[in-house]
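Record type: ASSEMBLY
Status: queued
Input:
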Amino acid sequence: MAEKLQKVLVEPRIRLNHGRGFSFGPGKAELLEFIDCTGSISGAAKAMGMSYMRAWSIVKSLDRDFAEPLVLKTRGGRVRGGATLSETGRRVVSLYREMEKASQTATREAGEKLNELLKARAK
Amino acid sequence: MAEKLQKVLVEPRIRLNHGRGFSFGPGKAELLEFIDCTGSISGAAKAMGMSYMRAWSIVKSLDRDFAEPLVLKTRGGRVRGGATLSETGRRVVSLYREMEKASQTATREAGEKLNELLKARAK
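Status: finished
Output:
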């Protein structure tokens, strides 16, 4: 029985840069998604295996870069309080993921041609 | 006089993966281009600030991954001999750069929307 060949996975990593001052890529997008999902900066930091201070400083840098805050602090019983994404925060994540998908679609054809140049690999 | 605002640069980095065994991204594409440009693996290594051994081992890994060699050794008077890209090598680089361009085009619209959410920045 012939084994099915597994195709190479094309992974576009989108990064937005502005000189040295600004950069937004997969790490920040993921942090925002985890804040949305866990309801706090500390929860997101834990989920991503980074320190609270590091997550907090990334959120601070986003406040400097974007015209409106992406993360809103919510009051509550949690240690260090909770956090949620603002409408702008959700829009930023959504535009970023849209760019990834558009890139995946746009690179598919050349990716398949490149795949054909590789040695056949068993799954 | 109003200063012109500089737009954020969208940089898609395309990486092709296959489990743990295979990865092709910007570094390998650049190495191939430098081999083409300098006419040798050692010249490419020097241009990229990497050791000859490292460049050589990357070329070896490409030989394992692709059905045909991407780099051809040429005989000549140079220390360690010269090298040139095979037709397949040129095609791989060209497909890779094509994927980058396609990704840039495909992400432009969402990138501009994201740009509008940033604080205005002087050039």
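Annotation: The CA atoms of residues 7 and 30 of chain A lie 26 Å apart.
Annotation: The longest strand of chain A covers residues 9-18.
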